[in-house]
Amino acid sequence: MPETDSQEDPTLTPTLPAAGRQTYAVFRNADFVRYLIARFIAALGMQMMITALDWELYKRAHSGLALGFVGLSLMVPMILCTLPAGQVADRFNRKKIILGSTLMLGLASLGLTLTSAFIPLNQNIATFQLFAYSLLVVVGVGRTFLWPASAAFVTALVSREELPRAITFNSGAFQLSCVLGPSAAGVIIWLTGDAWLVYAVNVVFAMVALALIAGVKHVHKIPPREPVSLKSLITGFHFVYQNKIILGTITLDMFAVLLGGAVTLLPIFAQDIIPLHGGAEGVGLGLLRAAIPVGAIFCVFYLAHRPPLQKAGRTMLLCVAIFGASTVLFGLANRQCLGHWLPAADGAWFWVAFGLMALCGAVDNVSVVVRATLVQILTPDDKRGRVSAVNSLFIGTSNELGGAESGFTAQLFGPVLHHVHETAGPVYAQAMATGAILSVVVGGFGTLVVVLVVAWLWPEIRRYGKLS
Prior knowledge:
Number of helices: 18
CATH architecture: Up-down Bundle
Strand content: under 5%
Radius of gyration: 22 Å
């Protein structure tokens, strides 16, 4: 593992305090900076694409099921490809894997651009969904191979001492893309009324990310090839199962996101529950999507300027509990639920909900940093790809399956439970809104239960101390 350049610019040394030099020293590493910028640009385009696709699917189909199938389309290839993706990340050049996966994501976005541009908004709904979900499967395959290679690759770009802060800034770059991406997508949709231009922007961003990654000089030293066997494929699962701290933290994050995630249902909240004043639903959706990463970015800078967490385990459990409670309040923060006791306009409720989503993002980022740091520092380099693949499977599956679960329960608690058979109109919209609210509130309570169960099953997490 190469060490970062230890030489400092003498003209800067007297003006920066020691804590500041330590916090930002990782940015003297040119390879890490290129990687970080490429990750930000690629993630920015992907966030724009997913936001636009959620908007377009709900606009075309007016169904929570249509949103739920987005999660399933991304999850299925993740389940099928995780084992080979981890093996590939440990046995082949990780930089080339990142380049190939990024190219695949760009081509999938190009396919969405053409599909959206040539199929009119109110026609051929089934055909559009078929193409969209098929291309999402391609996105799922690309992301499944990208994640473990990328996670293991960044570990080799910095020293072990700099790794926690490198992961923190890496998370910050992703969260910043989550702020700007949905907002940019919402503005483009608001101005044009179409989503195809958003997909086209993602194609350009993918090409820029390719060029930046190609400029990274670090070369991954490929270990001696071992025969591909069932034992080598499941090495990551075996390692995670043996390490109770990693197993517990991954399980906590997985079930918390599976039950407590409300992101998939945000198009329903933005359009039918807490619309932004003026009817700018695309902008409202973009802002709600951006709320979680806004909170996460504040958390990133807070963590970066503080020493490593001294009671990382307890802090993580507390933050996940706050995440669950905030999710419950988000589901209730609207005129339908609390308007009788707290009369306010929909616009006011919108900003209350925005603040609760930002709080969710801030506390969730603590869990992300703790988990990602532990996975990398407790795993030998020759197993990092496979263990990172397992981590990606747990977390990615929870994100996508959680999205599917949210969509299905919203449909069940809404139109199905209320026996509404129409697929449009005010009655259907009200039933869909009720289902979305119940889905979010029940999921938030489920997250609180998960925290208690994990704290009881894995006391090692409660006792885990300094994150270093």
